[in-house]
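Write out this protein's structure.
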Amino acid sequence: MFRGKIEGINDLVNFECDDIRNVENEFHKAVDDYLDFCREVGKKPEKEYKGTFNVRINPELHKKLTIAAMINGDTLNTSVEKAIRQYVEENSVFES
């Protein structure tokens, strides 16, 4: 049995099939069903991101980041956001 779950949405949408050749088709059907459901109830089919999440890093890296942030006059959050923004801009499949 092959099972899938659609990530990046607030609702639970999953699908399953017993033949690997049907996985993509079942995925598309699950997405179509979900979009139909959203239209029926007047819901936007998109996950809302709050802008907060927990990150676990090596304690020594945490210390170095905190010191670098203080030296640059930034908060730890600002430094992390700058680093993430740079990473996403350099590695993103999304257009700016």
